[in-house]
Amino acid sequence: MMMVGLLVGLIAGIVIGAAVYGREMRRMARFLRERPAGSNARLTVRLPGGASRELARAINAQLDAIQSERIAAMTKTQEFQRDLSSLAHDVRTPLMGAQGHIQLAMTEDLPADDERHLTAALQRLDDVRGLLDQLFAYARANDPDRTLDLEPVAVQPLVAEVLVGHYPEFEERGWEPAVDFADERFMLEADRTALRRIVDNLVTNALRHGDGAPTIRQRGDAIVFANPVSDEAAAAIDPNRLFDRFYQADDTRGTRGSGLGLAVAQSLARAMRLRLTATLEHSPGAGAVLALSLAADQTNAV
After folding, report:
1. How many angstroms separate the CA atoms of 156 and 196, rounded?
2. pTM above 0.85, yes or no
3. Which of 42, 114, 133, 211 has its CA 20 to 30 A from that of 268?
4. What is the pLDDT of residues 72-101, one digit of tens each?
């Protein structure tokens, strides 16, 4: 009987030990699964024994290595962004100087062919400057040293200001943008200059790639910039990639823009804790509509 009792006790101990061990392994797995990527939390051991502690030390060593690699990658990215911002600024100066010299030369009486070549060169330099301005704007939007002055900004007057600035382009196309704000006093906690850049880029995108006048609508905490697009353009647009830098949906976009305007808008929106998203809507008989929505976080609407 004593042997039977010992055997039963041994089996019970093994079963209990296995249960405790299994619970500890599940706790460790849950910790690794739920641990945020940027967290400094480290795995702890609640069971006695050298094997569990050795496992925890090995896992924590890997977590330390991953964090070190992440920090190094972030540092390199920030250094690159600073260098890109400086480079874009430095290149603009000689480019503007070259434009000035060409304009000065064109003030004199020139043979027709020379004037035509200089005019073409000036136009090409102007195109390069436009692309460079977009690159500079993207670099500034992602500059880790840039600070944003967040304050309540009335959105409707800012939208109106941007639209007035683009009036000649709308008039040339025969478009009349529609503005519909449910709350004319709607405000966002934002840097005014950065918010204006976002709105300007969204309006510019509608002008360059739209197939009709845009509608700017505010409902709740969101502002939607919607404009019709051609069937050909709609077939080429991937809304999930629209804010990627240098993304161009088709060759036409590539010849008319840098592919950075919406990337700049997205970077600035994220820096101010705003959400910028894109959807492509198809309505029977009405064609395709590209809608770009700028929305505030729950804590960012004023």
Report:
1. 11
2. no
3. 211
4. 777 776 666 666 666 666 666 777 777 777
